[in-house]
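User: Fold this; tokens only.

Assistant: Input:
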Amino acid sequence: ICDLYIDGKNISRIGVDLSVSVDRVIEAKDLIVAPGLVDMHVHLREPGFEYKETIATGTRSAVAGGVTTVACMANTQPTIDSLDVVEFIRLQAEEYGSANDFPIGSITKNLDGQLITDWRSLIEAGAVALSDDGKTVMDASIMWNVLVLSAEMNFPVIDHCEEHNLTQGTVMNLGKISQELGLPGQPNAAEEIIIARDLLLAEQTGGHIHIAHVSTEGGVDLIRWAKQRRIRVTAESCPHHFTITDTEVVNHGAKAKIHPPLRTQKDVKAIIQGLAEGIIDTIVTDHAPHAPFEKNRGMKEAPAGIIGLETSVPLVLTQLVDTGKLKLNDAIAKMTHIPSEILGIDRGTLSVGAVADVTLIDPKKLQVVDSAQFESKSRNTPFDGWKLKGWPVMTIRDGKIMMSKIE
């Protein structure tokens, strides 16, 4: 318990009972003062799909959720597969962004899995990682080569793990619920086959593989095995994958349609265990906005994905911290300095000289999720109506208050 002094855009001093002349005092009694949260897996949709989300609305949604830094995935239109698009995102974020926005470049042109992008140039231009997220790079030789460059240039390859030959036409998890609903389901093996393949490629190339949105018990086991072998692997999971199961498809239909899909309670338990053990390094949202008319098409036609930037903190505190499944410090670490270290960015820490990105959280604040009040353009969440505890009440970026609910 101490004071934190922000001078301009940086943290200047930290200590007990600091005696300094200040313009404003923010009383944070009984609040958690954390580094500005870092979400290394979001979809901001711009350029190309601005009717779903824009850099402006997506980053407003971020700061409303206590997130000061996001890394945006490449499945835009055009995809982030050229220096021009990287520069466009940088300029848009600079002019309209409420949060820091770091682009992730695509591994292949148009995410088609065939023609590779200029990986070296994308990283040199400011892309913090490479990924075809939304699709799997099915060609193992392409994954081998990008991991070779990862080892040389020290950037993560973010891996969407889905054996498409097992998932074509599927809309949810394969299991009892899909059978009862008569819907085509995808097996856990579809995710685990690619995890296993790419862990082996990482081991033999020395590259850094980052497993995106882990959703299965087998996936956690494979990553545990890889870490025991000292393979250079990190991993992430999302609040929906450690909170709800495929039964939500019965309750919410396409609002619960996600890739990878919601799994079973056995998988949820394994994800939580993986987080507690440190097998899963980070918590991300995989914020994936879609317009209401798209989600209203039903399970077979609707696109996959849910939004999550504005519900991530209370879901983590309610489902993991308050239940004793994860210590508060560990939860904060998985949402701040660990993703920053994975991406190699100078964010996610409260220390003298650091950029003054700060999130204040009220751990006792009870609030009902109401997507109609979200800053995001989209409303596709299965958590509407949930009463959750522990909400961000102030977000500071570069020393400037971007969101405040403190009177």
